[in-house]
Design brief:
mainly alpha; Growth Hormone, Chain: A; 2 domains; 15 helices; globular
């Protein structure tokens, strides 16, 4: 092996090791618990509302508190992991997530519930950039997009598991049981993470902390790489963290990518949150409307896997562009045509396939765009921008629906940001590329 190889080049040339599989698996499991814990309040909401006499508007505030926490966590804790390390952030945020979820079971009023859901969101906001970055840094180039897609698939899987458990637990043990189960499962992950999750090798090689070099050499040995085969190009301090991304030459590609996250989340979170209500108001049965919401997410899960698989064989940005534009056209069709239930479920699932599949593809672009010293910061800021869209999309949808527009009109309007994201993603390039 050439002595001029970078660490990433060395990883790319080696076969996938058990250590790398373990990193991907552990990060996937943490993301499953993220989905369980964040969505637990949605499953428990009817029972909480009945017990505390809460209005739908008040429940909306409870749901939003988690998203606000996720946004703040992505913007603040995400960049922090470029300073303290991906592993430390994952351990800290997982513990905070488990504790906040467990304590939610003891909430005795709305203020306590709001604070604990905010902390839950804050922890998840800190986790996602670090999980995304750690998987991307350990995965070889040929499998990176697929590995990132697999990791993000854990979130909806957690939601599905949470829904199934909630259906069994709540009638027998009350709404608190969902949070007890989620909190305990998350805290039980801590020993596995402490023992099995390594620090980012790229982070260790940039670190000057005592023992970092020895730990890096040990991990290199497990990957079949010797440290003396590698370059050691240390960036200056002013090229680390979030600061370099807010000035030339990184500002333009960063803002372009963050805008793609914002527009993508705006459209798709409008769809995720409102489609059951919209379809019910349009005359569909309650079962069909709920089924459409499930179909949207199931289609999205398949889309994530397919895009991850395809992107190992084709450039990912043109595929994201195609996925987003097709999803926007399908949204317009959903709004314009009255369909029988079977066709409605099929069209909704295909919309989720292209829309949510393309959305997860943005995470792979973010992981590839940034340098080792700025990756977690860039991904965290991108996720934060996306969460702003996730908050604004449902709010904007509610305002438009309140104007008594035709369904086809606001579907057309809210499909437009997805087309814009599909066009903009093709313009995202590292500043060194022409």
């Amino acid at each position: 092996m050439s002595t001029t190889l970078t660490l990433q080049q060395a990883i790319d040339q080696r076969p996938l090791s058990w250590l790398q599989v373990r990193v991907i698996l552990l990060c996937w499991l943490v993301n499953v618990l993220d989905g369980f814990d964040l969505l637990a309040v949605a499953f428990a909401a009817p029972a909480i509302a009945q017990s505390w006499q809460l209005t739908p508007a008040t429940l909306g505030v409870v749901f939003s508190s988690g998203l606000v926490g996720m946004t703040l966590g992505s913007l603040t804790l995400g960049p922090l992991s470029d300073r303290i390390g991906r592993r430390k952030m994952i351990l800290f945020a997982t513990f905070a997530l488990g504790l906040a979820t467990l304590l939610t079971s003891q909430a005795n009023g709305l203020p306590t519930l709001l604070v604990l859901r905010f902390v839950t969101g804050l922890a998840i906001g800190g986790l996602l950039p670090s999980l995304n970055t750690l998987v991307a840094e350990y995965a070889p180039d040929r499998r990176r997009n697929f590995a990132v897609s697999i990791m993000h698939l854990g979130f909806p899987v957690g939601g599905i598991i949470g829904g199934a458990l909630a259906a069994q637990l709540i009638p027998e043990f009350g709404w608190q049981s969902v949070f007890i189960a989620g909190g305990l499962l998350t805290l039980l992950m801590m020993p596995l993470l402490i023992v099995g999750l390594p620090e980012s090798l790229l982070f260790l090689r940039l670190s000057k902390r005592p023992g970092a070099a020895q730990t890096a050499n040990s991990i290199c040995a497990q990957l079949g790489i010797t440290a003396d085969q590698l370059q050691h190009n240390e960036p200056p301090p002013d090229q680390r963290g979030a600061a370099p991304l807010l000035r030339a030459p990184w500002l333009l590609p960063s803002v372009t990518l963050w805008s793609c996250f914002f527009f993508g989340y705006l459209t798709l979170y409008f769809l995720i949150n409102w489609i059951p209500t919209i379809l019910t108001a349009a005359g569909q049965s309650s079962d069909s409307a709920i089924g459409a919401g499930i179909a949207l997410n199931l289609g999205g899960g398949v889309g994530m896997l397919v895009l991850g698989w395809l992107s190992a064989r084709r450039p990912i940005k043109p595929m994201i562009s195609i996925f987003f534009v097709v999803a926007a056209l399908l949204m317009v069709a959903l709004g314009r045509f009255e369909l029988p239930p079977a066709q409605l479920l099929t069209l909704t699932a295909i919309t989720g396939f292209f829309g949510l599949g393309g959305l997860i593809g943005l995470y792979s672009v973010a992981a590839r765009l940034y340098t080792d010293a700025t990756r977690a910061s860039g991904v965290g800021l991108a996720i934060g921008a996306g969460r702003f869209g996730a908050i604004l999309g449902p709010l904007l949808g509610g305002l438009l629906i309140g104007l008594d527009w035709q369904m086809g009109d606001y579907f057309l309007l809210l499909a437009a940001p997805l087309v814009l994201a599909g066009l903009m993603i093709r313009r995202v390039q590292p500043p060194t590329l022409k």
